[in-house]
């Protein structure tokens, strides 16, 4: 064929996902031999080849890593980047940082730039809009260019790439279980990220821990005013004893509601959330939090990428590393 066929076009012809085609071409054990044979036969028939830039990438290294951050105002990602910078420096590598601002379109533009051969590999936390719309063609384009990709933090996605994240589901299961073991019965949850993967995992962990309970007290919304109103309902009308917050915004709103309504924390309401210690320690009362060890996550992301670049992983097999979180009790839980 004169025109080069893409992974997306192969997937359409085979009536399978782009992920399946990519995994089959990389001999992933997740794909059945029958499907892998179909994919490879069609790829051969259409003279499929990875993009020519891939050849250059394999022959020469730039010493540069592209890092895509979804939200620079979130201190978590600043700390992740700090870990990445420190580990990259050990290997005499440079980092180029891009910010998607949770935008699918911006993320597409960034990935398009990164296919030019300017980086050896890409570390990316997928934007909220990308997850919501489930549009990943731009990520498969990187793989089509044979550029190694490591997805960090937001890893609840079916993409053929190495992944580094935290134990989101287990962390909230353990947190809810901890409060139950302390004798608390009315344990609620608040979330402004219930629509994205990590939020869904945290909610799932909470629900598992609370199995057997009727009508779990939950407040979820992406709109601050609405979420605040729902949290107020949990605290005032439903009189919950503890509130687990899945993210920074819900934790701050919960703290605000308690202050405005004169709720004594931790005597009448215990609060804990996913929030950075640099904020948690300066709230009044100081907010108990779940430490995600972002610097460790950043270091691990660079390590996995370098292992991939050095050929330490077999083609088609992908590393998934999970960082264990830690509950840190300050004034808001009273433990």
UniProtKB/TrEMBL annotation:
UniProt-recorded Gene Ontology molecular function terms: DNA-binding transcription factor activity; transcription cis-regulatory region binding
Pfam families named among the record's database cross-references: LacI, Peripla_BP_3
Domain spans labelled HTH cro/C1-type: 4-39
Domain (HTH lacI-type) ranges: 5-59
Lineage: Bacteria, Pseudomonadati, Bacteroidota, Flavobacteriia, Flavobacteriales
Keyword match Nucleus: no
Keywords, sorted A to Z: DNA-binding, Transcription, Transcription regulation
SMART domains for this protein: HTH_LACI (SM00354)
InterPro entries, sorted: Cro/C1-type_HTH (IPR001387), HTH_LacI (IPR000843), LacI/GalR-like_sensor (IPR046335), Lambda_DNA-bd_dom_sf (IPR010982), Peripla_BP_I (IPR028082)
Regions crossing the membrane: none
Protein name per the record: LacI family transcriptional regulator
